[in-house]
Design the sequence.
């Protein structure tokens, strides 16, 4: 009987142990069969450590209730006292509903998990044969097979064996099963067995010693008549035996089925005879076999039946396999087969297809097999049917880069482990990642992901699939492969058709144009063309990793045309490993960076310098700009010189941003997106300040020589003062001056206005560079007020007329150019306004909220999606910034950390001061960083500013790639943006509006 309060405490403990339905679990624990152990804490902890505690507990109750009379105490005693048995049994019950069903039907089979000897930890073929030895009919074979499978699954889920060892054990069990099935078939037809010799050749994963839990077992049958028997009758007898063997394994009985035996890889497939003689096999392969058949024969292994005949078959076909790469159209044939596999996947399943989809297991297997066939004819170390062994041999032989091989190895093991655990659950043949949340949770936990199993699983899966796809395409379509496979002199160039197929497979939308670019770059016998032929195979792979490979290749041709005659350009790309990949990333990531580079091609040298992409300090930039301006003869020449510096430094910033966001083969993408945003904002703001300083110096010099009649300063406000400028941001400023001693105030004001007009004129001269617009609309009285004021005039205005919004705008005011003393005195003047003593009154807070609400309703562009507008949309930049600024105006008078012009610094200070909880601060920061990155991405991709996601598919995909989303996942990107900003808006409603 349950005492009061017990249920609630049990409920909480079950929930903490990982049960998703604690109420049902509590009822199961109250089952009579578990009465002796239900209070044992060890049992609950062990259940909580399984992939699915609910499933494990249900399976345990069913097993306990099914125990024969008198045997239940033995099960329960062993369960609580023997950790190896407990981990094995509960691990299986929590990972496999099907094996739980088997144990309920055969309740004494749990005893196979009790022993813990060396042979039980790593059984081989002999142990499995002994396990099946007493099976003399199909039903008994199925029971014995599941019993052996139970032991493999137990070692697998407990981590006693890794994924490769699990696959090898499954292949050994399949071999033992084929032998047992042939033994049963021969016993049922002894007269047939007496007339023939039959060899069973395993193909596919069984042949390669890398089988799944549930998979077709691919075989080929070879038969011969025994001495004195007619060949026709002997082959007929062998065919009957082979057919019976297939039925024994494949047919459904009261104990279900084992797995289908598939003989369709035999010569002529389904249209050919099930059994052939050895001579018939050899004749077919020598005359009629297609390329894919030799690729399949890589994994051929004699596993059952007559060992001499099986050995003769392997000896005969092995030389043919390793000559396959010399066949005409070998590489294109393999490519076509790969594309055919992908094209046959239903569109609704392609994103969940673990084996055949892009970035799936088949990608790795095809790439490895292709490289084996190409190089294995002259290197016997590559003759392995096991994918991971072959990959290791390829790396050891230098045919695959060690870094590439290591990434493929890790990704393949992860994907195979996922495949194993998916199939183990119900012992069904599937390669689809489940969609149900509970299935994904169990799958993630079974892979050791316990904190956020679903999110962690999806992230790891996508990461590994992306690695596979990128490396697979680089290896599988590398044009040099065709040259390696076709060694005839003069045949090293790809045919246009084959090259077009490769380019199309890599993602080039216009293969014909791409081929023309390649021909222009690489044709001829010059040293330049020779270097290009070395570079291009690698460059093409990097371009293919972008959202617009065609643009990458076109831009590479333009840069090469512009710099091809310089002695250092190609040498830089060839000898500085990072330079070529960096250039490929930059040229294929959008329009802005390539456009900047085309106008200053020599800036490509920055990509090869380890320090070349580091942002320069504001002091260094201003010093260079002012020196260039000082050397110019005219103000127009001066501003052109300043623009030249700005152009180069913008390219430096965009290149660093792109490379940091995309990552390279040696340096993964920057994980701290906030740091990326801060670097861009700081670099662009410093560069803008230096350019404004140069324009100011040119304007003063052109009208007044070395000394302006008034001391003059430019104050940055908005994103400019906050060091948060994006690539397409205007420069918001205030102008302030103070007449020099003895200068009339009107004369000083006129001089200041003249300088401002000249600055604007110079900065607005027609140019192909990104525009730099000076916006002074945040000044007192807005557009109706004077463009420039003296310090005294600012003081008088702020003392008598200043509105709350003007004080708020001053939160991000910071001197950026001109007289430093005037700038510092301006800051002293405004500090009491933006950081008011005692904070804001209720009326001021209401006014700020009213202004924000009006802005939301009036300023959002008509037709814009409020959930995707980065500046004014829900949870976007404006929401976060106004929330932070309200906190600054209320609390900065007592919290010095809040006295900063930078949004993220102010947010961090508010959190440090206890004004914003940790979770809410993180939510706001994440939304602000994401919205800023989207704005930067739009400018990088389109070459013009925008506050929302592009509508054109390729541009949207390019924004996704910049943000770290794989090809084909733009929907996920938009969903993530909406989710993150929706959470941010909820925080804004609470903190800003007081909801």
Sequence:
């Amino acid at each position: 009987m349950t005492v009061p309060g017990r249920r609630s405490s049990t409920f909480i403990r079950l929930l903490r142990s990982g049960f998703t339905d604690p109420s049902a679990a509590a009822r199961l624990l109250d089952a009579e069969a578990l009465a002796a152990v239900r209070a044992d804490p060890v049992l609950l902890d062990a259940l909580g450590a399984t992939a699915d505690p609910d499933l494990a507990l249900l399976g345990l109750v069913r097993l306990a209730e099914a125990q024969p009379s008198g045997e239940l105490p033995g099960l329960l005693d062993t369960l609580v006292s023997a950790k190896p048995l407990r981990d094995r049994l509960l691990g299986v019950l929590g990972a496999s509903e099907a094996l739980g069903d088997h144990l309920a039907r055969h309740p004494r089979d749990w005893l196979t998990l009790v022993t813990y000897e060396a042979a039980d930890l790593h059984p081989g073929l002999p142990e499995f044969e002994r396990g099946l030895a007493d099976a003399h009919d199909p039903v008994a074979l199925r029971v014995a097979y599941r019993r052996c499978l139970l032991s493999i699954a137990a070692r697998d889920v407990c981590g006693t064996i890794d994924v490769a060892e699990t696959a090898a054990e499954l292949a050994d069990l399949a071999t033992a099963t084929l032998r047992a099935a042939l033994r049963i078939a021969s016993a049922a037809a002894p007269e047939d067995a007496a007339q023939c010799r039959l060899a069973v050749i395993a193909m596919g994963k069984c042949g390669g010693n890398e089988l799944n839990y549930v998979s077709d077992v691919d075989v080929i049958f070879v038969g011969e008549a025994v001495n004195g028997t007619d060949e026709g009758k002997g082959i007929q007898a062998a065919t009957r035996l082979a057919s019976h063997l297939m039925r024994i394994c494949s047919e459904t009985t009261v104990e279900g089925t084992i797995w289908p035996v598939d003989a369709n890889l035999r010569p002529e497939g389904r249209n050919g005879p099930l059994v052939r003689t050895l001579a018939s096999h050899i004749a077919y392969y020598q005359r009629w076999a297609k390329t894919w058949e030799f690729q399949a024969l890589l994994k051929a292994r004699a596993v059952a039946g007559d060992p001499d005949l099986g050995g003769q078959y392997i000896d005969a076909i092995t030389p043919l396999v390793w000559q396959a790469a010399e066949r005409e159209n070998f590489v294109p044939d393999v490519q076509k087969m790969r594309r055919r596999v992908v094209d046959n996947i239903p569109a609704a399943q392609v994103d969940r297809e673990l084996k055949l989809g892009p970035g799936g297991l088949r990608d790795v297997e095809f790439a490895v097999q292709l490289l084996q066939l190409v190089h294995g004819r002259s290197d016997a170390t590559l003759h392995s049917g096991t994918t991971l062994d072959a990959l290791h041999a390829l790396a050891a032989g230098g045919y695959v880069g060690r870094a590439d091989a290591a990434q493929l190895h890790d990704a393949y093991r992860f994907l195979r482990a996922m495949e194993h655990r998916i199939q183990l659950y119900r012992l069904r043949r599937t390669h689809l990642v489940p969609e149900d949340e509970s299935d994904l949770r169990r799958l993630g936990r079974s892979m050791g992901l316990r904190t956020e199993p679903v999110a962690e699983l999806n992230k790891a899966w996508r990461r590994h699939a992306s690695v596979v796809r990128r490396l697979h395409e680089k290896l599988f379509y590398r044009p040099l492969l065709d040259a390696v496979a076709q060694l005839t002199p003069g045949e090293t160039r790809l045919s246009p058709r084959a090259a077009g197929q490769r380019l199309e497979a890599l993602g080039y939308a216009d293969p014909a144009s791409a081929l023309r670019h390649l021909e222009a770059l690489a044709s001829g016998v010059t040293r330049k063309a020779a270097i290009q032929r070395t570079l291009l195979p690698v460059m093409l792979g990097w371009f293919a990793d972008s959202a617009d490979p065609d643009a990458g290749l076109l831009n590479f041709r333009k840069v090469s045309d512009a710099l091809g005659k310089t002695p250092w350009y190609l040498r830089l790309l060839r000898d500085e490993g990072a330079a070529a990949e960096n250039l490929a990333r930059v040229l294929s990531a959008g329009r802005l960076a390539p456009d900047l580079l085309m106008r200053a091609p020599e800036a490509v040298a920055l990509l090869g310098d380890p320090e070349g992409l580091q942002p320069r300090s504001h002091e260094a930039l201003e010093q260079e700009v002012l020196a260039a301006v000082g050397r110019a003869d005219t103000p127009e020449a001066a501003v052109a010189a300043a623009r030249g510096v700005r152009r180069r430094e913008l390219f430096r910033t965009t290149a660093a941003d792109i490379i940091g966001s995309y990552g390279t083969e040696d340096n993964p993408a920057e994980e701290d997106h906030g740091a990326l945003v801060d670097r861009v904002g700081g670099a662009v703001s410093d560069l803008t300040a230096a350019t404004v300083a140069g324009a100011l110096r040119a304007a003063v010099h052109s009208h007044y020589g070395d000394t302006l009649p008034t001391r003059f300063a430019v104050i940055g406000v908005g994103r400019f003062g906050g060091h948060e400028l994006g690539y397409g941001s205007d420069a918001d400023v205030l102008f302030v001056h103070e007449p020099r001693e003895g200068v009339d105030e009107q004369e000083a004001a006129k001089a200041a206005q003249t300088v401002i007009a000249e600055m604007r004129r110079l900065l607005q001269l027609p140019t192909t560079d990104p525009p730099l617009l000076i916006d002074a609309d945040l000044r007192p009285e807005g557009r109706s007020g004077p463009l420039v004021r003296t310090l005294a005039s600012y003081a008088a205005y702020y003392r008598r007329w200043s509105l709350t919004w003007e004080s708020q705008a001053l939160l991000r005011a910071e001197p950026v150019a001109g007289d430093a003393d005037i700038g510092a005195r301006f800051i002293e003047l405004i500090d009491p306004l933006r950081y008011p003593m005692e904070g804001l009154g209720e009326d001021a807070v209401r006014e700020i909220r009213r202004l924000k609400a009006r802005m939301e309703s009036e300023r959002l562009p008509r037709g814009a999606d409020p959930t995707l507008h980065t500046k004014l949309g829900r949870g976007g930049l404006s929401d976060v910034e106004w929330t932070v600024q309200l906190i600054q105006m209320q609390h900065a008078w007592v919290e010095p950390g809040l006295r900063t012009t930078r949004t993220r610094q102010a947010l961090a200070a508010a959190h440090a001061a206890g004004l914003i909880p940790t979770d809410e601060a993180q939510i706001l920061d994440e939304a602000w960083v994401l919205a800023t990155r989207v704005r930067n991405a739009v400018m990088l991709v389109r070459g013009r500013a925008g506050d929302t996601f592009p509508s054109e598919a390729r541009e949207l995909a390019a924004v996704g790639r910049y943000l770290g989303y794989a090809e084909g996942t733009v929907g996920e990107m938009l969903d993530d943006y909406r989710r993150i900003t929706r959470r941010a808006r909820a925080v804004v409603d609470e903190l800003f509006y007081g909801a």
